[in-house]
Specification:
The protein contains 13 helices and 7 strands. It has 340 residues and is an alpha+beta fold. A hairpin with a 2-residue loop joins strand 4 and strand 5. Helix 6 packs across helix 7. The longest helix has 18 residues.
């Protein structure tokens, strides 16, 4: 839930006509943005706070180890593997933030922090090892036609032999999905270097959310009949985008990675806006709303309040995400009973 510095604008005091004015005004003001496309070229930077501060230098440094990777690719892999959890352990015995199998670690793990120990659980070793392993795979498939990064990712998933055999990403559904997911997540972790394309589903998501204005907040609320149709913040955003066929994760900090990140000046109606006590770490995000324009969002704030309009410009404003279907599909299948 958000803190007390929220500026209250009750649903009763702001009519649905106000929403229309905000949306029209914001789209008009952003008209110059809509024709733009993402730029190309230049070094790949990380989106603000997308990588936890504890790992940002490691990802930035080692993400430039070879031409086949960049910091956003490395970040996308680590997020896909462990969700930045250095203590993650899978049923397949994959361990740590980079989810190395012990046998693979023995062959490819490196002492990234030069302390004399190769520790699979230490991100200062595991993150450099993930980058180093990527670059080794890239060398194996360097003569294969096509995009070198996609071929490297395919080799990571299916093995270099399969990539060489098929002269590109092999025709395995799992491998093709893995490559697509990482390349899509890459866009979420990369700092935009051009205009972020507007969302085609935003208006319908806003329409759903505005129908819920005045509904009492419920922590953990998903809007089900047994909950009286009530929501918490991420339950509301999940339900709003579900109406347009986009399935978001349940909690706010996972929803942040469902697309690219427009700047405050580029916000358009339908963008998700996020709030956190730690502005350096997207994993610390604890609140989300749906932007409607004019500096306002539709917000399910906290217990005792109702879904309403609130201003977004508060000290805990973290950033925004322009949700896409591919962005949502690329996210790891993280299920959580709690809410934010």
């Amino acid at each position: 839930m958000r803190k007390a510095w929220l500026v209250v604008a009750g649903a009763g005091g702001l009519s649905l006509a106000f929403v229309a004015l905000l949306v029209v005004g914001t789209y008009s003001a952003a008209a110059g943005l809509l024709g733009g496309t993402a730029g190309a070229g230049g070094a790949v930077g990380l989106a603000k706070g997308a990588v936890p501060a504890a790992y940002q230098n490691l990802v930035t440094t080692w993400g430039n180890l070879c031409p086949a990777i960049n910091p956003a690719i490395l970040a996308a892999q680590l997020y896909q593997e462990s969700g930045w959890n250095p203590n993650a352990e899978s049923p397949a015995n994959a361990k740590g933030i980079a989810q190395f199998i012990p046998g693979t670690w023995e062959a490819h793990g490196i002492d990234g922090n030069k302390d004399g120990v190769r520790d699979i659980w230490d991100p200062a070793d595991a993150i450099p090892s993930a980058a180093s392993y990527d670059c080794e795979l890239a060398k194996y498939v360097k003569d294969v036609p096509g995009d070198q990064t996609s071929n490297m990712l395919a080799a990571y998933n299916a093995g270099a032999y399969a990539v060489i055999k098929y002269q590109g990403v092999p025709p395995y559904a799992e491998t093709q999905n893995y490559v697509k997911n990482i390349r899509t997540l890459e866009q979420s972790f990369a700092r935009p270097i051009g205009r972020v394309e507007p969302s085609k589903q935003a208006a319908a998501a806003i329409y759903f959310a505005q129908q819920k204005l005045g509904t009492p907040y419920l922590w953990g609320g998903n809007g089900t009949a047994d909950q009286g149709g009530r929501f918490d913040c991420s339950g509301l955003t999940q339900a709003a985008y579900r109406t347009v066929g986009i399935e978001l994760p349940r909690v706010a900090n996972d929803q942040y990675n469902a697309g690219k990140h427009p700047s405050r000046q580029e916000l358009l109606p339908g963008d998700l806006v996020f709030f956190s006590d730690d502005l350096t770490d997207s994993r610390a995000i604890r609140h989300v709303g749906i932007y409607v324009g004019g500096g306002y969002m539709i917000n399910a704030p906290y217990t005792g309040a109702v879904i309403r309009f609130d201003k977004i410009d508060t000290p805990d404003y973290f950033g925004a995400t322009r949700v896409t279907e591919d962005g949502a599909k690329s996210l790891p299948n993280v299920e959580a009973a709690g809410a934010s």
